[in-house]
Structure formats: structure tokens, C-alpha cells
Amino acid sequence: MKPVQRFVDWLQEEATPKYGQIATWLLLLFAVVVALSPIEFAVGPRRAVSATIFSWLPDAVVRSPELFFAVRVVLLGSAIAWALRISIPYSCWLTVAAFTMSWALRMENLTNGAHIFNVTNWLLIIHAMWFHFRHREIHSALVAGKFWQTKLYPRWVFWLCIFYLGWFHTLAGLSKICASGFDWGDGVSLQLWTELFGWDSSPFGKLLRWDVRLTAWMQTGALIIECLSILCIFNRWFRYAIGLALFGFYLGVLTTFIDFGFHFNAILVAYFLLPVDQLLGLKFLPARSASG
Q1: CA-to-CA distance for 83 and 92, rounded, in angstroms?
Q2: Positive or negative CA dihedral for 118, 66, 54, 86?
Q3: What percent of the chain has pLDDT over 90?
């Protein structure tokens, strides 16, 4: 049991909240921007296949512009409250619920959707857990005027964010293999996507269309990087290398398919997987309970 206990103690190490608070503000900004972006309601019957956890709602509810507006108002108000550390942890969970429902309503009313909200959604949940479990300590530090100086940010929050990002991208790679086999990276599919949906003036897009063999190497390389992303949890140098590779992948996507909306994913990958923690002076020390 000693290795398990050492791992638990390691996860409970604490740091001052600057890194975590900046991450929370970023996530709240992304949530509001994504949720408040315009939506065009599709016309026609809904399919029987479930799109979201709210697919069971009747058409009159799901297609109600008033409900969509009300949910976005709740999201904006609760996000502001969370950003100002007001009424935590209630404002945290209200923000998570409103963001989840706002995007679900969007997905229920579109003919096609994107998975650009998943990373923000789950990282918001992780940070809501942080504020939930430490809300008493956070409130005490705020009352004492020592929020920024008090060790309130547990390592498990940081580690869980890294784990999620690694697992998310590994699942993305494995799902491609499960759906299309190892021939997914043959270069032809990416060339077709670039031709149909890519930005005509993109230098990277022109490179992709130039030679199918080069495109196949790049596509296969991206697939390998995705599948290996979970390794980022084992070593910080793995994390930096995978973070750099994923960030480069997102830059390639964003400069080729400029309206695909993965901007926030790229920023969050850079924030958690590149050495931003070192730049912001994030340093974990033994938790108070462990240090006596």
C-alpha cells in the first residue's frame, strides 16, 4: 500500500491558486463565448438517434428560442459570479449545468455539430470540483484577504486536467482506427477534406494538396501523436513533447480549416501541456495534513 499512499499524498500537495484561477477564468471566458455565439435553428424532424443527454426533451422544449435565451442568461450570470468567487460552489455547478445545456440545445437543433465544447466542458467540471471541495478554505482566505498567498490549489486538479487532455486525444486517435482502420492516414481523405472545406489561401493547405505521400505521412503522424497523448501523465518531458506536437497539430488545423472552431482546444493544450506552469511559478508543496 505504500506506493498507493505516496501517490495519494503526491496528489494532495498544494500550491497557491494563481495558475488554477487563471485557468478557471480562461474556461469561463471560453464557455461564455462558445455558448453565446449565434445559432441557426434547423428545420425538419429530429432523428431518433440521441444526440445529447437532453434528447429526451420534447420538440417544443428543445426548439424553444426562449429556453435557449434563458439558459444563456443563466450561464452568463453564474459565470460572472464564479469568476468573482461569489456564491461558490453553487455558481460553479450552475455554470457547468448551463453551459452543458446550452450546447446540448445547440446540438439538438443543428444538422451537423462539432465536438469543440468537450474539452472546455470537462475542464470546467474539474475546476468546479476544486472549488466545491475547497470552498470553505477559499472563503476563509478571501475573508482574510490572503487568497493569492494561501495554498489552495491541489495537485490532483492539475494532474486530472492533464489526464483528461491526454485521454481525450488518445480516444480521438483510437476512434479513428476503430472507424477506418490503420488506413485512416492514407492522405487521400485529408486531401479531400482540404479541397472541400479548407481555406484556399492556406500555405499549409496547399502543401497538403501537393503530394499525397507527404500528406499520408503527416496524417499518420498526427494519428500516432493522438494515440500516444495519454503518455503525458507519466513524465513532464513527455507532457511538453506531446503538448508541443498537439499544439502544432491544432495550428495546422486552424490555418487550414479556419472556421472549425478548435481555437480554445489549442489554447488549453498549450496552457496545461506546455511549460506554462513553470512560467507562472506553479510549485506544489506537501499538504498541510501530510506535513503535520
Answers
A1: 9
A2: positive
A3: 53
